[in-house]
């Protein structure tokens, strides 16, 4: 987009944010040069703390992109291959997973495994969806009790079905192969090379002062009982709008992975008609443009961030409410 178009888009996003009483942050920049960078609403309603550009927000499924990159980093090392059967790493754990499921199937949501958090069930963000106490889900191995026992739904490779549990399995595989904890692995292989100094997997029950509390849309009730106490392979990192801009530029410049590998990660493999997008490995891609997109929605979280490789423009909308980002993203798409 030329500068005049970006300035018009910035005005549209800002005006929509004001009209919608938006709570969160918006960032629009051209190759790192800000066109719009503004925060709105409160990060902590009980204490009247406003959101700021430095506020860290939950990212929900945006984190799947980080997981996919960590997996590909291990593939680059030779520790894994795309066709590695996950059974060879899981051993006797998660015995209901078909022996034919590979790393590639999980990355591309074609594994056919049963999902512990099936989004086709039309869940509300206020639902209590976890079947184990949220405080127990603090590390990757602890998720075994949550994701086990969900029977295989379809043969591996047969069809695309967005799957949260599959990305927890990827985190398990990555952790066991790398010999370090998943959170440390992603920090080393993704956040550090990208210069994402404010990004990490925070505990919901001890959020630092610069992190936004997630609100459910029911009074001032928070999301602390609705999500794992610490995010993992399928979601839950905290980040800033500025870090996401650095992320996209670092990714496409080859600072996280070699550029040919990045091109494979972002290559569309499935058109998902009901979402109006295509899917690569951990990343959505616009239906008609090469723009990669990361989207997350959960209790107290809504976020979309996308990158235009032609103009190196990054657009991020992040909110600490479950629906706050979507009216702004609609305004973006209609502009």
From TrEMBL:
Keywords: Hydrolase, Membrane. Its EC number is 3.-.-.-. It comes from the Bacteria. It is found in: Membrane. Residues 19-325 form the Beta-lactamase-related domain. It is an enzyme of class 3 (hydrolase). The keyword Membrane applies. The keyword Hydrolase applies. It holds the Pfam family Beta-lactamase. It comes from Lysobacter korlensis. GO terms for molecular function: hydrolase activity. InterPro entries: AmpC-like, Beta-lactam-related, Beta-lactam/transpept-like. This is Serine hydrolase domain-containing protein.
């Amino acid at each position: 987009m030329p500068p005049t178009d970006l300035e018009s888009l910035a005005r549209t996003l800002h005006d929509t944010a004001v009209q919608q009483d938006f709570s969160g942050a918006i960032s629009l920049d051209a190759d790192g040069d800000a066109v719009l960078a503004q925060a709105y609403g409160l990060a902590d309603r009980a204490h009247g703390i406003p959101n700021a550009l430095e506020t860290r927000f939950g990212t929900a499924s945006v984190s799947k992109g980080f997981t996919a990159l960590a997996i590909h980093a291990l593939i680059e090392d030779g520790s894994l291959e795309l066709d590695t059967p996950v059974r060879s790493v899981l051993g006797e754990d998660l015995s209901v997973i078909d022996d034919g499921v590979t790393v590639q199937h999980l990355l591309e949501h074609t594994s056919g495994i049963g999902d512990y958090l099936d989004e086709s069930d039309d869940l509300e963000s206020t639902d209590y969806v976890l079947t184990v106490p949220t405080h127990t889900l603090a590390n990757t191995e602890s998720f075994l009790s949550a994701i086990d026992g969900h029977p295989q739904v379809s043969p591996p490779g047969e069809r695309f079905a967005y799957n949260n549990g599959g990305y927890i399995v990827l985190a398990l595989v990555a952790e066991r192969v790398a010999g370090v904890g998943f959170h440390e692995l992603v920090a080393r292989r993704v956040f550090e090379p990208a210069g994402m100094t404010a990004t990490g997997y925070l505990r919901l029950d001890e959020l630092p002062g610069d992190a936004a509390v997630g609100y459910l849309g029911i009074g001032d009730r928070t999301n602390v009982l609705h999500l794992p106490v610490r995010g993992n392979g399928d979601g839950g990192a905290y980040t800033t709008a500025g870090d996401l801009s650095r992320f996209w530029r670092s990714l496409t410049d080859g600072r996280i992975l070699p550029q040919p590998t990045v091109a494979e990660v972002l290559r569309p493999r499935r058109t998902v008609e009901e979402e109006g997008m295509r899917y690569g490995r951990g990343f959505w891609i616009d239906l008609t443009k090469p723009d990669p997109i990361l989207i997350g929605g959960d209790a107290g979280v809504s976020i979309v961030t996308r990158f235009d490789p032609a103009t190196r423009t990054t657009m991020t909308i992040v909110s600490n409410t479950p629906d706050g980002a979507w009216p702004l993203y609609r305004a973006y798409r209609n502009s």
